[in-house]
Amino acid sequence: TALGQENNCYAVWKLVHVRSWSEKQKKLERRRHTTLESTKAILLDRMTDAGEVTAMDCVYKNPNEGVEDRIQDLLQRMTVEEKIGQMTQIHRAVSSAAIIKDFFIGSVCNSAGKSGNKDALSEDWAEMIDGFQTAALETRLAIPIIYGLDAVHGNNKFYGTTIFSHNIGLGATRDYDLARIIGSATALEVRASGAHWVFAPCVAVCKDPRWGRCLESYSEDTDVVCNMTSIVSGLQGPPPEGHPAGFPFLAGRNNVVACAKHFVGDGGTEMDLERIHMAPYLNCLAVSAVMPSYSRWNGRKLHGDRFLMTEILKDKFGFKGCLVSDWSGIEKMGEPRGSNYRECVEAAINTGIDMVMVPYRYEKFINELTSLVKDGKILMSRIDDAVERILRLKFTAGLFEHPFSDISLLKFVGCKEHREIAREAVRKSLVLLKNGKDSDKPFLPLDRNAKRVLVAGTHADNLGFQCGGWSKTWQGQSGRITCRHNCLGCRQSNRRSRNKSGLREDSFGGDFSNEDFSYAIVAVGEAPYAESRGDDPEPSIHFDGDSIVRLVAEKIPTVAILMTGRPLVLDMTMLEKVEALVAAWLPGTEGDGIADSVFGDYDFTGKLPMSWFRETEQLPMNPEADSYDPLFPLGFGLKCKRE
After folding, report:
1. pLDDT of 593 higher than 80
2. Residue 114: what pLDDT?
3. Choosing from 65, 531, 571, 603, which is the catalytic residue?
4. Disulfide-capable partner of 620 in 81, 201, 269, 306 (CB 3.0 to 4.6 Å)?
5. CA separation for the pair 100, 112 (Å, rounded)
6. Higher model confidence: residue 540 or residue 1?
7. Mean per-residue pLDDT for 118-141?
8. Is 159 buried (19+), middle (13-18) or exposed (0-12) by CB count in 10 A?
């Protein structure tokens, strides 16, 4: 029952496991203080022993000096080994204090996780990252690591965090200020876990819903995607007036380094690369990092396309941030994967990749890159350019002044204010596709005083399905993945009690012809997926959900709720039989936002971010084409109240 309370369930969960929060805080504070003091002493001793000036006299250690001056001062002190170490990003599973110190590792990351993993807590992650940081600060030059993770709809890996609607749903809101606010909330929860860098947002313009990453795209409309890049100013903080275009920016310790991805054209089906797919990147050039796509352009893999990465992004657009590879991006350049590794390293670095997400075979990468530099295959000027960009990222992020996590931010994890933001996003993302078989007799909003209501469907009582992929794990999973309600406030443990909407719920038993139900709410949709595992030539409702909807709708007036990361094939018989149809996308943890609109507290305002096709033979669709004939057009969305 504690899981359903308005209290911060994150804190409740810790109490259930008999963890003393105040004692934990004191322990972390003591450890950080001891580490900082010892690290300062070690650094001072080493510099003095080497006959160098003290730390306070080093330009790069002085926060009052300009970022570019600090970069150049530090760069000229670094050895080739230290520079190559900075270009190396490794997975936390192969990271240790010894490895970070021996190889001068510049960055550590984590994967989104596999199914079955235990619940990850933000404060435990912060302690782990601080341990890595301690090792980095004990190296000769005390260059801090930068820790990155996938926070694609909130800090989605961790138990108790606020998981927001996926990007496809946020695109339906057309609320660009709300996107910025979501970015700010996400930044706070990420920094609470000790991380500094998020591999988000995805600013792909998805032209085909059969693509498995459609849920990560805000829209098929370039203008919508461009406007939704406002989330970057929430994650990083808004840059001040006059901030030079193309230079990274971070407002402070409550913000995170953002990474626009995947440059460029992923999700695309047309060759108009600049007008359609590059525009969102031009709209957010204050972003600190960019990640290239696994895709090809004109037959070339983008991780090896120097024209696009260096001549266009860096030179023409003036991007001065860090270009970081995607996961195992260099290995995936080889055909078959992992082959010709040395040639792939050479191609990627000369293409303009600054930091490589290795993530496991770091020794092989470091050895090959060192050898390529020694043999003159990669010039030191290219290495220096990459390290300059990495250091610019770190100096801008304030890591030299504030390398450790801030435990005071833990109070924001899953806090009520963030949950309310997420709930607002849910209700604004809902797209009303049908409301009444007769246009003069709207079915919604529902009567909250109804005596008996049937709540049914595979997604009505499954929080994992509601959140979709990139939720606790990479592919997502079924069940109660964190401490939140499912849609409409239903509870697994109390199906027949009254929920937050004041309605009585009954589980779906199949034979209900003699039951006296006022109406039914049936929630169906897709099982969770992410990336290529979601590629589907015929995207449709999973688990025979359309049959469930038809079965119920034949006997009870029904509103169907679709939880999906994209438009799906809709059975026309089902569409005819339901009284109302709502596209709820993948709403995240705050599914009560669905009830807010279904029961009339708020009207529907969402607009389709993608054209809803009639049949897959129409795909990809182009709203500007004469043959454009969707089931529901781009931008479609009904309201309950007639204007």
Report:
1. yes
2. 77
3. 531
4. 269
5. 22
6. 540
7. 97
8. buried
Do β-strands 296-297 and 300-301 pair in parallel, antiparallel, or remain unpaired? antiparallel
Geometric angle at alpha carbon 499, from 493 and 501, rounded to 5°: 160
CA 215 to CA 475: how far, in whole Å? 12
Global pTM reads 0.92
Check if 326 is active-site: yes
Which residues have CB under 8 Å from 633's CB, separation 6+?
Answer: 608, 611, 612, 623
Asked whether 362 and 90 are in contact (CB, 8 A), the reply is yes
Distance, CA of 82 to chain centre: 31
Reduce the DSSP state of residue 351 to 3 states and report it.
Answer: helix
Q: Which of 82, 123, 326, 388 is catalytic?
A: 326
CB 81 within 8 A of CB 62: no
Cα distances (Å, whole numbers) of residue 275 to 281, 318, 353: 11, 18, 24
Q: Dihedral sign, CA of 294, 295, 300, 305?
A: negative
pLDDT value of position 4: 39
Buried b (16+ CB within 10 A) or exposed e, 180-192: bbbbbbbbbbbbb
In this structure, the strands spanning 431-435 and 580-583 are antiparallel
Could you report the per-residue pLDDT of 363-413, keeping only the tens digit for each? 999 999 999 999 999 999 999 999 999 999 999 999 999 999 999 999 999
Which band of pLDDT confidence, cut at 50, 70 and 90, is reported for residue 501? very low
Rounded alpha-carbon distances, angstroms, from residue 179 to 201, 218, 406, 410, 591: 11, 11, 25, 22, 18
* Catalytic residue flag (residue 526): no
Cis peptide preceding 239, ω within 30 of 0 = no
What is the Cα–Cα distance from 113 to 482, expressed in whole angstroms?
Answer: 15
Closest CA to 129 of 111, 148, 155: 148
Residue type, 547: S
